[in-house]
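Input record (one chain):
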Amino acid sequence: MSENPGSPIRLVRCPGCGRQAPYAADNPARLFCSARCRSADLAAWASESCRVDAPPPGDGADDGTAPEPAH
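The corresponding structure, as predicted from the sequence alone:
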């Protein structure tokens, strides 16, 4: 998808610091305002301080399937 050179620049809120950041192809940290905010977000995910909630893995008893044998 290409950007239209005559269109106004779309600004989005940086998820790292909350500042306005241009969402454009010429912003190498697109979605974030800077490489620093992008790196801080990656570090938070890598250290597992940010996670997506998911149900804990079960033993298979609740869905009718047998659990995998341990090797």
